[in-house]
Each structure stands twice: as structure tokens, then as C-alpha cells.
Design goal:
eight-stranded mixed sheet, seven-stranded mixed sheet, 27 helices, 34% helix, flat
């Protein structure tokens, strides 16, 4: 796009879509010679005041020379970027490299002058802040380290853009102009500012989709049936509080079911906030173009025929997203089930669910429409019958999630006052780094429960375009748990945990009291607690003759016991028990629980439909005749019961009146002596294992919350030679990509970070082995390093404690006789290390998840059982401590069966040093220390490998941008 005289080709990688402060989107791209007319048109729409602020003088129009200057760039010393909507400029920014005297310059000058111009109609949308992030990233790429800007004192908006960015800056006033100078090196503050802006913008973009003031259904059929007409019917039935329109090119009537009907969205005289697109895929582009031209803010595309249908559909999906973003719109879908918002002020059911879910405090996200149906059905049944009135605040089914993803919805739920608990069904994670970061922040405020589908398929569903990860699912799960995510395996567990977390306070510890009228059920609960790592107290058997008052007194005593953190009540029906007895027992349990609001209470029942209904029935301010229609198990062609787990639970009963709002974990408990109607809805479970599993997840999450409140630190080590390591790495990479270092190079690099590796000397012949032993000193170890025998002591390729030459020569002969010639075995000699526990420390940079540190015991058994723990890099001191203790074989490090405890402090320090090495130098893409022998005092690294490659791109550290389609 540039002339042949330009020094660099068009930098396409600078193009990016961004979300602005108001939730709309814009495209940022380099300005080229083809933009002359766009630039002139843009400038004509800028006010005289804005022009004056830009040029410090009246400047009504651009001259031909100006247009040439502002559109011809070399993309090195002169760079211009534009923010566009609908293909037209809404803002521009440029930098010009200057020298110390402020004159035009080239490298090695590392300062540039920067200037912005934003169209008045788009000021206040955060356009300048987004452009500053991107132009700063471009400048750093071109070895510019500092920006200078001259601003008139009256131009307070632009001064604020610079001062709020978070960079280190200097500011002074001269000749009537404010001169700002700031370094472009990202700081903790600039990164925090960037992420805070990202959160506000992405949350607002989702909020516009979930709380529109007006909705148009494009493709609403003239006769009942069909996807579009179904969505229109569902919107009406839910009582949507905003304006509703039906759009169909063939419509002749002025109304469809009482909804104003139009042949095109262009015919609608009023603004439309949200459009639900339900036309066949070939007609979607025309509908999107009409929406964009009309100023629609967002789209829910339920139409199918996109990436889920193959390569042609995938390209159609890319074009859909590109087209929508051109107009500043965001998309849920395509192939989406829809969105729901139960807020009384919105009542939006823009989905294929024929009934509105019960209002509640649970945010629900599902990538799969079928699983979304199952979750809504299960929450409806469990929330209304078995366990009390618990419903949904908002629901998003993203389909192919070509644009809006789980990350965006997390941004919205993070500070949504109507959502206390987040439940997510994910089949793929498009940006694991970002998801982990957002999950950690969200989990610190409210519980986040995730079940991941397609765990063992090895690939994402066909409609999902995501980066591949080399990490096994177990590793990904461990990293999510590190971020505070409550990881479960089934949608049943998802709902079980969600209902507990939505209704009960977090437990203060793992101590569980068990009481009930069945000794056997109590013992099952006790065993389940032990299996989940809880600390159950001996079960209290009240016998089958226990009355409701006996239950109340026993529960009150248990809750009053300082040695108890939670209570599980087990109950079986008595012969001939009546519904009145069920209600009496439920009232007794609620009464006792209300007196101790700081401890969770769960009920395990056996086919007690009456008790389950009574437990869930709370006095409500809603009329007792309020609508509470049951949600079907299938919609839009789905077969009822086809989705596993969508069926009713044992003991379900018709739901009580809508209106009671459950208390979330983050809310303030009621004052003593008061029991609000919705304060203590007690969750009940049909099996002890399910109740205890949900409780155990709550205990672990509560512990994570306490630990997260006091995060660890990444320690500084005075003996680290970071600069020397960087120089060595640069020198080594000059030899080529994908370099595995030799032993000497490995030892030197690790030594710069205080990691001492015991050198192993090659022994190609017996005489060489003897000479090596003489150099390192007896006793020695003789080891084979052939790939098929390396680190496999169980195969016999290692001889230890060789005290003299005779033993060494005999061992050498044995190895060559058993396994082959020396040139095949590659034997080495190494000084013996103090006895201890053999461990393995590894670090790897995954292209999707980032840098990961792993730890486990050495040996085939640990590898076979997958007994390895993982943490994201950089690792803190607390992370290192927990990492050592996370593996199942950790007792071997702490004196198991009378053995001497080993030096875990030295082990933790080693892991922190490895973490620092990889974090400081992303070119170190893999480190393996094996074995690391941890003795009672100190440790020995006996083997090490390091792999180098050019640093992979870190999209989580660059400027804000939407994923590339």
C-alpha cells in the first residue's frame, strides 16, 4: 500500500480491533497513502476548537502538503495510526522521531514527538487512550523509548490522557505550552491502568448486549414456529421492558403478535440497541450491514452454518466478525442459543428457551446450546424443588463464540451487583493467559465454578478457533485451581457446588459435624468426608424416633460448637410420615441455621419430597400465585432427555412462588435475632457423596480466598546475574533457533542464577571413566545417557557408590555387556551426591497458557500416576511452598515412616530460581532438572537440560486488542 520509496512494508500486524469505553468497538490500523480522502473528510468533521488544540492556531483545512505528510510514513521514524468505525476515521495519532534538539531524526535517536486528534463526536469514548497504548507499542518495536508531547494548558482532556496512562513522566511549562515527557517502558501502574480500562470497556460491551433498551428480531416469521418467531415469542412472554420490533422482508402486516413489524431495520424510526439475527447464513451479511448503518450496538446471531459446518463456514464466520466490528458492534454467536437477563428492570429472554428462568444470583455461561438447556433445566428443578428458590441473574450461550467469549462475560460478572456466583461450561479457552488472570481476580470476589467439556478429545469443537496447547488437561486444571477456579467434572457437580455457594456462607475450615436419624447414612457421609480430605467429627445418631425438635436442638448444638466449621444433616423418612411432619422438620432446621449464619448447613435426604419442598419454601414478598412455570428440557429441536443430566432430581416438587432472592457468599449476614425470608435456604442433596463433594469444593475455595488475601512475593536474589545471562542467551541464539544447550553451556547459564549442577564427565572408554573419577573424586556414579535409558534407574543403567577403580571398571563392563556398546550408551561419570529423595523440577513455556513450573518425584511410578504439581510463572514464595506439598507423594519429603525429613526450604529456593530465570528471559523456553536429589541438608542437581528459542509473542502484555479472527 506504500510507495517503493518507503523503508518498510505495510505492518499488517499493527492492525487491531479494540473495545472502547462505552462498549463499542473500533479498528486501529496504520495510515497509508490511500487514506488521503478519508483524512480530509475526517478533518472537516473536527470542530475549530479541536483543530486549534492540535495545531495551536486556527487551522480550518489541511493543505495538500499536510495531507501528503500525514499519509506518507516510513513506519519507522514516522508512523500514523487511525481509529476507524464504518471504514471512516474517528481519530488519528502520529509520532515523529526527533533528536535531542527536537529536530527530525533517525535511529539511534530514541525519542519521538506524539500528537492526537479525535473527532468531537467520539471524544469521551476512550479512543485517545486506546490509540496511546497502540502507538506506544509500535514505538517500542521501533526502538523508541520516550515520547514527548506539547499540549495547550486549556486542552485538559488530552493532558489527562497522558497523565492517566501510568507511565513515568516529567511535566513542565514553557512558552505557554505544557510539555510532557514520559518513558514508554511499561510499569506496574501503566499495566494496571490498561487492565482496568480493559475491564470497564469489555464489561460495558457485554452490558449493552444484556440490558438493551430495544430489541429487533430479524427473521421473525409471519407464522408461528421457526427460530426467529420463537425468539420473538419468548421475548414477549418474558415481559421485556424495552421496545420490541419484528423484522421480516416478506411481512405485510403492521404487527406480529402485537409487536410492530417492519420489512427492514432501516424502517424503524427509533434507535435499536440489540438485534437478534435469525435468518439463513447467506442473508446474514445484508442484515448485519443494515444493522450497522442503523447504529445497532450489538448482535445475537442464532443462525447456523458457520465454522461448525467446515472450512467454508469458518471463512464465513471470519467475515461476519470483520463486518460487525467495522460498524463497532459486538457479536454473541453465531450458532448461539441466546441470552437471558432476569432483572426486573430488563426481563430479557432473547433465546430459544421457551420459559424465563427463575430470577436469582447465579450467572451462567455455556458455549454449548444443548448444555445450556440442561443447565437451565437442572437449576430450575433443583432451585425450585429440592433445594430452594435459587435462580439465574444472567445467562449467555455463546455458540461458536467468534467474538464475545467467556473472558468478556467474566469481565461483566466481576462487578455485577446482581451476580454472586458464576457457573461456566467451557469446551475451549481461547486465551488461557487472560482467562487465568480474569479468573483469579473474579474468584477473589465471588465463586467461579467451571466444568470443561472436550477434555480428552485432543481438539476444540469444530466451531471454535483457538490456539493449541501442549499441556495435558490435568495441568490446565491445576493452573485453573491455582487461579481460584472451582474445577468440577460434570454439570451435576457444577449445579451442586453452585447451589451451595449461592445459599450458604463459606466454611472457615474442614471440620464437619454430621447428625441425623440414620446411623448408616451418617457413616456414609463420614466416609465421603474422609475421601474428600475433610475432617469429619463422629456422626451423631438421633435414631429414627427423633422429632423435629430433636433435630433443631442437635443442629443448634453443632453450630454452636467452636470445633465445627460446617454441618451435614442426614434424614430418612419415618414410616407413615406426613407432609406436616416434613414442614415441621424443615422449619426446625431453618430456625437453628438462622441462629448461626456464619456456618454452612447441608441436608442429605432419601426420597423426602415433602421435606425438600419444605426446606425450599421461604416466606416471600411475591404473591403466592406468581407464575412459576417449569422450564422444558429441550428447545429448538432438541430432544427432551437427550442431554445427560437434564432430568429431574429425586424428590422434586413444584417450585414455590418466585421472588425470594438467595443470599450470596459475599453478602452481609442478617443481624442476630432477625431471619429475612431469603436468608438461609438450606441446600439438600439426594446422595451423601454429592453433598460432601460440594462442601469440599467450598472448603478448598474458602482456603484459597484466605491465602489470596495475603499473596506471596517473588523474592530477589542478590547473586543473580541477569545481564550476564541475557548476553549469553543472545550469543547462543545467534547460532540458530530451537537450540538445546550442551552441558557446559547449561551449567554456566544456570550458574548465573545460583543453580549449581554437578558436572558429569563423558566416559567413552573404561580408561576415560577412571580418569574422570580421578578428577571428581571417589565415590562416583556411572550412568548411561542414551535417550532410552536416561533417567531410568529402574532399568539398571546406573551404578552408584563406586568406591575405587576396580569397582568402576567392573561396573563399566557390566553396563556394556547388558545394554550395548559405549557409543550407544554414552556413559558419564559423576561424583556421588548425599543420599536423599530424587525429585524433578521443570519449566516450559506453552504457546497458549504461558510459562509453567512443574514439580514431582523422580521415577516411573510418579510419572505413570501423573503425580506432578504445577504453578504459573512467576512463582511466589507461597506458590513454591504449596507446590512442594501438592503432590500425593509429598509425605516422602517430610519423614514418612521414620525416614529423615529432607531440606524442602532448599528445594523451594531452587524452584524460585528456575522461575526467575524463565520469567526474566522468555527465550528460555524449557528447563529440566532431573534428578534433583534433596538431602536432609541441601540438595544436588545431577542432570539439567535447557532449550532456547526466540521469545514468543506475549499478547497479554501488549496493548488492548480483541482476538484476531
Amino acid at each position: 500500500m506504500q510507495t517503493s520509496s518507503d523503508r518498510h512494508e505495510y505492518p499488517a500486524h499493527w492492525e487491531a480491533d479494540v473495545v472502547l469505553r462505552d462498549g463499542g468497538t473500533a479498528r486501529i490500523r496504520p495510515i497509508t497513502v490511500d487514506d488521503a480522502e478519508r483524512l480530509v473528510s475526517f478533518y472537516e468533521q473536527v470542530s475549530d476548537e479541536s483543530k486549534y488544540y492540535r495545531f495551536f492556531a486556527p487551522y480550518p483545512r489541511l493543505s495538500a502538503k499536510d495531507v501528503h505528510r500525514f499519509t506518507h510514513h516510513d513506519f519507522v521514524d514516522r508512523v500514523g495510526l487511525a481509529a476507524t468505525v464504518g471504514g471512516e476515521f474517528i481519530a488519528t495519532v502520529r509520532y515523529d522521531r526527533i533528536n535531542a534538539d527536537g529536530l527530525p531524526a533517525s535511529a539511534p535517536a530514541d525519542e519521538a514527538e506524539v500528537a492526537f486528534l479525535v473527532q468531537d463526536a467520539h471524544q469521551g469514548r476512550g479512543v485517545a487512550s486506546a490509540l496511546l497504548e497502540h502507538i506506544a507499542a509500535v514505538a517500542r518495536e521501533r526502538d523508541i523509548r520516550r515520547f514527548a508531547a506539547e499540549v495547550l494548558p486549556a486542552n485538559t482532556k488530552m493532558i489527562k490522557v497522558f497523565t492517566d496512562a501510568g507511565y513515568q513522566q516529567k511535566r513542565h511549562f514553557e512558552d505557554g505550552v505544557v510539555r510532557l515527557e514520559f518513558d514508554l517502558e511499561p510499569t506496574d501502574r501503566s499495566l494496571a491502568v490498561q487492565r482496568a480500562r480493559e475491564q470497564r470497556a469489555e464489561a460495558r460491551s457485554v452490558q449493552r448486549l444484556l440490558a438493551p433498551g430495544s430489541v429487533a428480531v430479524i427473521g421473525a416469521g409471519r407464522t408461528p414456529g421457526g427460530v426467529g418467531r420463537s425468539v420473538l415469542t419468548n421475548l414477549r412472554a418474558a415481559g421485556f421492558t424495552g421496545r420490541l420490533y419484528a423484522v421480516n422482508k416478506a411481512v405485510q402486516e403492521k404487527e406480529l403478535d402485537g409487536v410492530p413489524a417492519h420489512r427492514s431495520i432501516r424502517e424503524i424510526d427509533e434507535p435499536v440497541d440489540l438485534a437478534v439475527v435469525a435468518v439463513p447464513a447467506p442473508y446474514v451479511p445484508e442484515a448485519v450491514a443494515e444493522c450497522g448503518e442503523h447504529g445497532v450496538q450489538g448482535l445475537v446471531v442464532v443462525s447456523a452454518g458457520y465454522a461448525e459446518s467446515g472450512p467454508e463456514g469458518r471463512e464465513r464466520q471470519r467475515e461476519l466478525v470483520r463486518q460487525a466490528r467495522t460498524y463497532g458492534m459486538r457479536i454473541i454467536g453465531p450458532n448461539a442459543f441466546g441470552v437471558i437477563n432476569t432483572s426486573p428492570g430488563v426481563r430479557l429472554n432473547a433465546s430459544l428457551a421457551p420459559e424465563m428462568p427463575r430470577p436469582g444470583r447465579i450467572g451462567l455461561f455455556a458455549q454449548s446450546g444443548a448444555i445450556g438447556i440442561a443447565l437451565l433445566s437442572r437449576l430450575h428443578r433443583r432451585g425450585g424443588g429440592v433445594t430452594g428458590v435459587t435462580g439465574v441473574s444472567t445467562f449467555v450461550s455463546s455458540g461458536n463464540r467468534a467474538d464475545v467469549s467467556g473472558n468478556d462475560v467474566l469481565q461483566y460478572w466481576y462487578d455485577d451487583p446482581d451476580t454472586d456466583v458464576v457457573l461456566m461450561y467451557l469446551e475451549s479457552i481461547g486465551n488461557p493467559r487472560k482467562f487465568t488472570r480474569l479468573a483469579r481476580r473474579t474468584a477473589a470476589a465471588k465463586p467461579l465454578v467451571v466444568v470443561q467439556g472436550a477434555r480428552h478429545g485432543g481438539a476444540a469443537p469444530q466451531g471454535h478457533a483457538v490456539r493449541a496447547t501442549r499441556l495435558p488437561h490435568a495441568t490446565v486444571s491445576a493452573l485453573l485451581r491455582q487461579a481460584g477456579v472451582i474445577r468440577v467434572d460434570t454439570i451435576t457437580e457444577l449445579v451442586d457446588a453452585g447451589l451451595l455457594l449461592a445459599r450458604q456462607p463459606l466454611p472457615l475450615g474442614p471440620r464437619v459435624a454430621i447428625l441425623g436419624n440414620s446411623e448408616s447414612l451418617g457413616l456414609l457421609t463420614y466416609d465421603a468426608c474422609l475421601a474428600q480430605g475433610l475432617r469429619p467429627l463422629p456422626p451423631l445418631d438421633l435414631t429414627t424416633a427423633a422429632s423435629a425438635e430433636d433435630f433443631r436442638e442437635a443442629l443448634a448444638r453443632a453450630l454452636d460448637d467452636n470445633g465445627c466449621d460446617a454441618v451435614v444433616v442426614t434424614a430418612i423418612p419415618a414410616v407413615g410420615e406426613t407432609s406436616a411432619a416434613d414442614e415441621a422438620l424443615a422449619q426446625a432446621l431453618r430456625s437453628a441455621a438462622a441462629a448461626a449464619p456464619a456456618k454452612p448447613v447441608l441436608v442429605v435426604h432419601v426420597e423426602l419430597g415433602g421435606l425438600a419442598e419444605a426446606l425450599s419454601a421461604a416466606a416471600s414478598t411475591a404473591p403466592q400465585g406468581a407464575a412459576s412455570a417449569r422450564l422444558p428440557t429441550g428447545a429448538a429441536g432438541a430432544t427432551p432427555g437427550a442431554v445427560p443430566g437434564a432430568g429431574a432430581e429425586p424428590g422434586t416438587a413444584p417450585p414455590p412462588a418466585v421472588g425470594a432472592t438467595p443470599r450470596g457468599p459475599g453478602t452481609v449476614p442478617p443481624a442476630p435475632g432477625t431471619t429475612p425470608p431469603d436468608s438461609r435456604l438450606i441446600p439438600a442433596y439426594p446422595a451423601a457423596e454429592r453433598a460432601v463433594r460440594a462442601l469440599a469444593e467450598a472448603v478448598r475455595y474458602a482456603q484459597w480466598r484466605r491465602d489470596a488475601a495475603e499473596p506471596g512475593k517473588v523474592p530477589e536474589f542478590e547473586d543473580i546475574d541477569e545481564k550476564g545471562a541475557a548476553g549469553q542467551i543472545d550469543g547462543l541464539l545467534a547460532r540458530g533457533e530451537g537450540l538445546t544447550l550442551g552441558m557446559e553451556e547449561t551449567c554456566v547459564l544456570l550458574g548465573r542464577y545460583g543453580i549449581d549442577v554437578r558436572r558429569a564427565l563423558p566416559a567413552p572408554t573404561p580408561d576415560d571413566a577412571v580418569a574422570a573419577a580421578g578428577a571428581v573424586g571417589y565415590p562416583v556414579a556411572l550412568k548411561t545417557t542414551a535417550p532410552h535409558l536416561r533417567h531410568r534407574a529402574d532399568l539398571g543403567g546406573v551404578r552408584l557408590d563406586l568406591a575405587d577403580e576396580e569397582q568402576l571398571r567392573r561396573a563399566y563392563a557390566e553396563l556394556t555387556e547388558l545394554f550395548g556398546k559405549p557409543e550407544e550408551l554414552r556413559p558419564v561419570v559423576q561424583a556421588m551426591a548425599p543420599r536423599g529423595v530424587d525429585t524433578v523440577v521443570r519449566a516450559v513455556i506453552d504457546p497458549a497458557a504461558g510459562a509453567v513450573l512443574s514439580f514431582g518425584l523422580a521415577g516411573a511410578a510418579s510419572e505413570l500416576l501423573g503425580d506432578t504439581a504445577h504453578r504459573l510463572i512467576p512463582v511466589t514464595d507461597r506458590d513454591a511452598t504449596s507446590l512442594v506439598r501438592s503432590i500425593r507423594t509429598a509425605p516422602l519429603l517430610f519423614g514418612w515412616r521414620g525416614s529423615a525429613p529432607v531440606d524442602t526450604a532448599a528445594l523451594e529456593e531452587l524452584m524460585l530460581r528456575v522461575s526467575r530465570l524463565v520469567d526474566d528471559h522468555p527465550e528460555v523456553v524449557a528447563v529440566s532438572l532431573e534428578p534433583v536429589v534433596v538431602a536432609p541438608h541441601g540438595l544436588s542437581v545431577l542432570g539439567a537440560t535447557v532449550r532456547l528459542a526466540r521469545a514468543p509473542l506475549r499478547d497479554d502484555l501488549g496493548p488492548r486488542t480483541l482476538p484476531v479472527i
